[in-house]
């Protein structure tokens, strides 16, 4: 049951640990890897408030996800990491919790499993969402030491295709998570926390918790390794005690910032669980938890870490103001500042990914620290738009087809056309956004501002106004470019507006916004689709001249095809 940590790192996982439990409810569904579990909540599953213990829920989540992974792999699998989990609601005695898991995508020897948790009140018939999560599992090596290579997932529905595609983006974010925190701290890009002494501050050492658990047979899985869900439950227990010592009441666990599994544990191990409050914000507490395994005379092995966010709620369910924390010197100060960095990342993610399209302005300020999440949002928004079902054909001319999609206050367009160039050539030519004015009359000027990395670029674009007799518009665009990372993927060039303090609106121009735009090019077909989601301020002008818009799109994309054909040989000679 030993696990190769380097193998997990190669696959984009943070760490390794085995997880399974001997009892489960397993139901086949349309997807061959889908597993469902339903449990009625009994008093033995609950805390003193008759609410389901999060530790117990994590056990069930881990069981269900592992069953999905092993169903696909047809071999033993271990939990490599569990992404951030935000618990939106609590679950009470007598209610039913339903957990559904499915493998979204398989890479070489790792796979992403999506998990959805919902709750049902049997007496009212009411259902609600509790949380969702993504877990990474890796296959165990064979007894010969040979790696087990996974067969690819073949998505069948549009929803499965979307999750399959976005799994590659989430994997990219996971691999950069630790680097983002290090960068925040190294470059001093966070507002340093005030850790001076306060008369009412609670000393961090008072919140320390240590607990030892002996791993017995009931704590292990079918691979005779310590059950990962049990480890997570023990970690939640000590974290809750640490948070309680700060606030001197019973806190509610709201968020877990990623469980990172680093190595295995077996029967007979002693597990040393350590927890301490890292920082106390106005209405939330971050607790750091660490799990170490050891034998009688052996050295301690670091096997798991997590950061848990607690709140204290009043009688109306609103967060209470919490005491200040006085960190310990040196290591305590480091943990204090890192907690601030993690909070900034959580807020950035929430602000960027959950931004409502009715909000103005829609653009998000760009900086190197939130770039990873802006890039993820850029690509995922375009892929989500492309997966919509209710596209309506508006016009067609010479193999250029214009589709429209109306959703509440949003109007989106899709242009499909066939191109006589290989997909990788079309991608490379269209990814050079500075050349777009040569074939798109709407782009009067396009200048590269900054190359973030090999896949992301910032551009300044000037276009005519959509308003009759209006002045020109300019945009700051983030272009995120993705090549296929596996079978079934497309080439993607995603565009969205961002704010850049170094580039205010150009004199004589109005600053415009691109909500979502870009190209998706099929790797196996000579088919290219362009998407554009119109912002609310231009809807009256677009909707009043659909015929003119159709003619404009036809002319532009006829010119695009000519551009690709004309530059095909030149590109191949210089490739």
UniProtKB/TrEMBL annotation:
Positions of the HotDog ACOT-type domain: 31-143, 205-316
GO MF, any single term: lipid binding
Superkingdom field: Eukaryota
Catalytic activity: butanoyl-CoA + H2O = butanoate + CoA + H(+)
BP terms from Gene Ontology: acyl-CoA metabolic process; fatty acid metabolic process
Domain START as annotated: residue spans: 391-548
Keyword vocabulary terms for this entry: Cytoplasm, Fatty acid metabolism, Hydrolase, Lipid metabolism, Repeat, Serine esterase
Main location: cytoplasm
Keyword hit for RNA-binding: no
Cellular component, GO, one term: cytosol
InterPro entries recorded: Cytosol_ACT, HOTDOG_ACOT, HotDog_dom_sf, START-like_dom_sf, START_lipid-bd_dom, Thioestr_dom
Compartment(s) of residence: Cytoplasm
Pathway(s) served: Lipid metabolism; fatty acid metabolism
PANTHER family, alphabetized: ACYL COENZYME A THIOESTER HYDROLASE, ACYL-COENZYME A THIOESTERASE 11
Official protein name in the record: Acyl-CoA thioesterase 11
Taxonomic path: Eukaryota, Metazoa, Chordata, Craniata, Vertebrata
